[in-house]
Amino acid sequence: MTTIEENNLISRDSEWREELRKRFTTKERTAVPRVKMPEMDAAYRVRCDDEVNQGLSTEQAVLEARRCLDCPDPGCMKECPVSNNIPAFIKNVERRNFGEALKVLSLTTVLPAVCGRVCPQEKQCEHGCIYNKMKKPPVAIGHLERFVADYNRELDETVARQSSAPAVQAPSYFAAIKIAVVGSGPSGLAFAGDMAKRGYDVTVFEAIDCFGGVLKYGIPQFCLPNHVVDAEIEKLRTIGVKFVKDTFVGKTLSYDDLQEQGFKGIYVATGAGKPRFMGIPGENLPGVMTANEYLIRVNFSQHEIYGQNVATLKQKRVAVIGAGNTAMDAVRAALRLGAEKAMIIYRRGESEIPARQEEVRHAKEEGAEFLTLHNPLEYIADENGLLKAVRLQRMELGEPDESGRCTPVPVEGDIIDVEVDMAVVCVGFLPNPPVSLPDVDLSRNGNILVDGSSMKSSSPEIYAGGDIVRGAATVILAMGDGRKAAKSMAEAFEQIIRNTRLD
Fold first, then answer.
1. What span, in angstroms and rounded, lies between the C-alpha atoms of 346 and 348?
2. Residue ranges of the domains in the chain?
3. N or C end of the chain: which has fewer CB within 10 A?
4. Closest Cα to residue 430, out of 467, 376, 478, 457?
5. Mean pLDDT of 273-290
6. Ranges assigned E (strand) in 363-405
7. Comparing 172-273+431-502 with 277-427, is the CATH topology the same?
8. Phi-psi bin for 426: left (phi > 0), alpha (psi -120 to 50), beta?
């Protein structure tokens, strides 16, 4: 895409944008109610693994896009970690130019179908929408992003790929520079896409036998279907990104090996999958497992290794400890596996629940119970050594802590036992420890320490981002790290090339 074409797509001053703004007054646009995402009926969806949110129709998307006021100083863009040109893609939706809308998104993101589904838009782009100042619901940016990605994916494969994969226009000598990406989660994919678009020779190494990282093993199909992730990865292949599975960099392939194979830059995006424990009695009992283990078994139930173990997950009474998005995934998965009683146990009140409001609502609609202001003290075994109950301390909220949230404090003597067959612990994750990472400084928790502006580690050729740097965070923040690292690494190589040519 030429600069002129690109500017015509994204510039607010483009003739078509100016004409579009004049079609409706601000009063007419703000009078349109926010679209409601069509959803599968709760009584049906809890018996299957089908995606809950069904996606907007074309007419719904166009009408919702009309609500966008095309602000001269759009707050939505300021809140987007990957710097999507949100008004530009939405205005292309309004004029029914859906292929052009995807081209706009593809300038800054490689995962629009994923982000449209799992990003916390209400805390990011939609939080910056001017409608909030009017005390009205913000434009449904996430729903529109998903619509654009899905609409184009459902076209003929060739057409979809041509419309979504920006042409690589870069000096040929960039193609001689090999870049390694360690980990195929959202941060690694975002980095790989941006480097490939710049013309570099990019290879993504993944330790397991499928690509997508946490997008595959950590998020159930009823939230994010695997075929959606696979389609996004396939778009990266079309612009030259190579993928190598079953390769554990640091074990099966060392960092020295990468350098010997000619890789000049390395981006580490190995994620955070090491579980946190509460350190209470009974955590080692059969029937107590971490969220990672539970969701991997659920998501890979067709896999030869994990499939035979899925039956052990089908318990009648399941307690999920925690109330983040992962906890909501786990409790909803338990219901789909046939649990008669599945509950969220959370030490704070309902208003402090960190999960997305939509996820909480979906869990409640599907029958999940919420036992807030309770904290596990102990897991109790039966006579056979199997989990039979969790002992809970009732809590009340005290003074706010450093994060601004009220600190939960025990209510003296108020302790109950709740019968359960399985407990899933979802109280956070630690970074997957990098293996034999040379000359790279780590935090005491195992996070790679980087310069926040460049994502460069203490080793000159190694950059890092996503959960291995941040700890457990969102998909979009991980992608933002990948884009920042790609920009920084590319600028470093371009400087080296300029200096070499001058010499």
1. 6
2. 3-164, 172-273+431-502, 277-427
3. C
4. 467
5. 91
6. 369-372, 374-381, 387-400
7. yes
8. beta
Using one digit for the tens of pLDDT, what is the confidence trace for 422-463? 999 999 888 876 666 778 898 888 899 999 999 999 988 899
Radius of gyration of the chain (CA): 24
2, 315, 356, 410 from 363: Cα distances, Å: 47, 18, 11, 27
Residue 409 and residue 411: Cα distance in Å, rounded? 7
SS3 270: coil
Closest CA to 51 of 229, 276, 251: 229
Question: Please, which contacts does 380-385 make with residues 24 or more away whose CB atoms are closer than 8 Å?
Answer: 380/282, 380/417, 381/282, 381/285, 385/285, 385/286
DSSP class per residue in 107-146: TT-S-HHHHHHHS-GGGTGGGG-GGGGGTSPPP-HHHHHH
Task: Inform me whether the pLDDT recorded for 306 exceeds 50.
Answer: no
Does position 53 have pLDDT exceeding 80, yes or no? yes
- Confidence class for position 492, pLDDT limits 50, 70, 90: very high
> Distance between CA atoms of 154 and 146, rounded to whole angstroms?
12
Burial of residue 442 (number of CB atoms within 10 Å: 0-12, 13-18, 19+) = middle
Token pair, residue 150, equals 């899905």
Q: pLDDT, tens digit, for every residue of 218-247?
A: 899 999 999 999 999 999 999 999 999 999
Residue that is written with structure tokens 């490939």 in the block: 196
Write down the pLDDT at residue 45.
95
Q: Please state which architecture CATH assigns to domain 277-427.
A: 3-Layer(bba) Sandwich (3.50)
- For helices 157-164 and 98-106, angle between their N-to-C axes, nearest 10 degrees: 50
Q: Residue 499 is encoded by which pair of tokens?
A: 């200096």
Q: What are the tokens at 118?
A: 């799992």
For the chain, the first-to-last Cα distance in angstroms comes to 33
- Tracing tokens 């067709």 back to the chain, one arrives at 302
Answer whether residue 326 shows pLDDT above 50.
yes
Taking the CA atoms of residue 492, residue 495, residue 496 and residue 497 in that order, the dihedral angle to the nearest 10 degrees is 120
CA distance 367 to 409: 28
Question: What secondary structure letter does DSSP report for 438?
Answer: T
| CATH code for the part of the protein at 172-273+431-502 | 3.50.50.60
- Its CATH class, for the domain covering 3-164, is mainly alpha
Backbone angles phi, psi at 65, to 5 degrees: -60, -30
Tokens 């990865």, residue? 233
pLDDT higher than threshold 90 for residue 382 = yes
Question: What is the three-class DSSP state of 154?
Answer: coil
3-state SS assignment for residue 8? helix
pTM score, two decimals? 0.91
Give the residue among 269, 226, 237 at the shortest CA–CA distance from 117.
226
Q: What would the pLDDT profile of 145-186 be if each residue is shown by its tens digit?
A: 999 999 999 875 554 454 455 555 566 678 889 999 999 999
CA-based angle 221:140:230, to the nearest 5? 30
